């Protein structure tokens, strides 16, 4: 099967596409999209890679599952297309941005501008059945996205990994902390944020401080 993914990522990940687990995953995904409503739409599944090529990746924000409501998911973790209501977790991300860097809260939830600046907005699972959170977990996507993290860790240096919540923090074992920067906090979801585990982490200013020390262009959040 020909996987439509950005050229540099395709080169880096070419061995994965030929592995048994990935072929089984694609067979499963094709059947799901044929028999059920699934998100995001097929052409958006690899948007995180399309908008943020391997060579340009300097920050990684790891999510778990795509949004499972209509028209929300478009292949970027935490992001929704313009015209769709901003989800609660992203509202809290925006609130922290405002507190941290005095950035006004946007009127939309589309984070494509971040991705195009080198922020890989990666979900661990890239697809989901409508209204069924976690329905495509443990089918192979996590094996694939774990390898994405390993490749970034082994073949690049100085990336800032933002790991929010317990699930994301467990991915730290895939990252060489001697070469990269790992910032952790609670998840921005209301449940976690309202318990005091999210607000005040200052991850956005800290990310830019790290990039500045590396003489890398800052992210315009």
UniProtKB/TrEMBL annotation:
Gene Ontology MF annotations: uracil DNA N-glycosylase activity
Reactions that this protein is recorded to catalyse: Hydrolyzes single-stranded DNA or mismatched double-stranded DNA and polynucleotides, releasing free uracil
SUPFAM superfamilies, alphabetized: Uracil-DNA glycosylase-like (SSF52141)
Active site: 65 (proton acceptor)
Family: Belongs to the uracil-DNA glycosylase (UDG) superfamily. UNG family.
InterPro entries the UniProt entry points to: UDG_fam1, Ura-DNA_Glyclase_AS, Uracil-DNA_glycosylase-like, Uracil-DNA_glycosylase-like_sf
PROSITE patterns: U_DNA_GLYCOSYLASE
Subcellular location: Cytoplasm
Keywords: Cytoplasm, DNA damage, DNA repair, Hydrolase
Domain Uracil-DNA glycosylase-like residues, every copy: 50-211
Alphabetical list of SMART domains matching this protein: UDG, UreE_C
The protein, known as: Uracil-DNA glycosylase
Gene3D superfamilies per UniProt: Uracil-DNA glycosylase-like domain (3.40.470.10)
Entry function: Excises uracil residues from the DNA which can arise as a result of misincorporation of dUMP residues by DNA polymerase or due to deamination of cytosine.
Gene Ontology cellular component annotations, sorted alphabetically: cytoplasm
Biological process terms in GO annotation: base-excision repair, AP site formation via deaminated base removal
EC identifiers of the protein: 3.2.2.27
EC class name: hydrolase
Provenance organism: Psychroflexus torquis (strain ATCC 700755 / CIP 106069 / ACAM 623)
Family annotation (CDD domains): UDG-F1-like
């Amino acid at each position: 099967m020909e996987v439509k993914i950005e050229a540099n990522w395709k080169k880096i990940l070419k061995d994965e596409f030929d592995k048994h687990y990935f072929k089984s995953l694609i067979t499963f995904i094709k059947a799901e999209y044929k028999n059920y409503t699934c998100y995001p739409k097929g052409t958006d599944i690899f948007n995180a890679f399309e908008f943020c090529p391997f060579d340009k990746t300097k920050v990684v924000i790891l999510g778990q599952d795509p949004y499972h409501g209509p028209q929300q998911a478009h292949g970027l973790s935490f992001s929704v297309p313009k015209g769709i209501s901003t989800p609660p977790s992203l509202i809290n991300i925006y609130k922290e941005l405002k507190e941290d860097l005095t950035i006004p809260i946007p009127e939309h939830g589309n984070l494509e501008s971040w991705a195009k600046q080198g922020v890989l907005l990666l979900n661990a699972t890239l697809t989901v059945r409508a209204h069924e959170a976690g329905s495509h977990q443990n089918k192979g996507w996590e094996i694939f996205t774990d390898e994405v993290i390993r490749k970034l860790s082994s073949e690049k240096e100085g990336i800032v990994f933002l790991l929010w919540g317990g699930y994301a923090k467990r991915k730290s074992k895939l990252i060489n902390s001697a070469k990269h920067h790992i910032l952790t906090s609670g998840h921005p979801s209301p449940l976690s944020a309202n318990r005091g585990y999210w607000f005040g982490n200052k991850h956005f200013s800290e990310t830019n401080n790290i990039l500045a020390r590396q003489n890398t262009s800052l992210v315009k959040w």
